[in-house]
């Protein structure tokens, strides 16, 4: 009889336990969708401040604004963490055109380009040369110095359209943007034009970081992105045998590093204050648009996590920090500095979650963790099912939280639907009007729910959590 009574007591306890978590998640989603703050924060970041490239005046304005907003939430601590960041300035709007014909009759067709972040400038008069087209570094190597020297190399490797995971398609050709100038310069090229990393056909050039690696300054050649429509036009002209020239002019400049900040807010844990959990996004953005999807959305969603915990009456057991990282786009200085300081202080970080994939409808999370931890996380799947959150797989977490990686921490990345993300990524149309309020709020609630569960049960203890049956 005692054994039966014990079994009934355990069963009822587990059922109530699971129901309690389901009720908490329901309240979190309700608060975000009916009383959310994330969209208003994003409105200010995007429309009142704008693009927030590291080292810029707007980046500093964003630091000051988000710090003030976190202070209004009544967190236990809010502070700035100093970090030195690169300062690259685009300068005047770029100019470019394709030139076809001979001295007697030349036709110029204007095209849309933008300098890649970190690129050198052309001369004041611009750069004009014949063009060679390649779609990979292998094709470039096959051409060799004889066919490349003195030319502008046009990297026309397109994102693979049949990949459902658009980030996989992006990763497949992003090296052309980053290292294209490095590889082309070694063969004597005088400039580089790179097809924008965008699955859509449009007129928006997409910027992004590029690097010269170990090239000496006198070997560094200007590098720019060209819109997908204009990349197709240039490729068709080359294929016709017209042997065109390409002209472009850009006035970008690299300055000495400047002081900036990570913005950090904390709710101190009630039971385990020395176990730290991080949720964050990067406060900097590129300068062409206002960085609403990349990564204003992740910034305001991360701020909203702490606000929703407080609004829902949740008193975290562990210390939960929102970290708004500076300089993800062209240096990752903020993420590295945060991890460096955490290591110096001996802080025990057990979990970190990043949102840096746009403010679209959330689908789930990817985790950088052990198979055992992933199996334990799977026990929460049914809690998320009412909110159409279904993706729980191992994979990439986030650039800013990556430096925290060790054998014990669980790293996670929010995974929204990715099909539209690269329509806006690093381009001038990444603006506030491209973000849907409800989708943004769903993402914030989904992040808060995961943080709540990890805080309640802790890492490597999740196996004791009951699973709700369908």
UniProtKB/TrEMBL annotation:
Transmembrane segments: none annotated. GO terms for cellular component: extracellular region; lysosome. GO terms for molecular function: carboxypeptidase activity; metal ion binding; metallodipeptidase activity. Residues 1-18 form the signal peptide. Residues 262-447 form the Peptidase M28 domain. The keyword Phosphoprotein does not apply. The keyword S-adenosyl-L-methionine does not apply. It comes from the Bacteria. PANTHER family: CARBOXYPEPTIDASE Q (PTHR12053:SF3), PROTEASE FAMILY M28 PLASMA GLUTAMATE CARBOXYPEPTIDASE-RELATED (PTHR12053). This is Carboxypeptidase Q. It comes from Winogradskyella wandonensis.
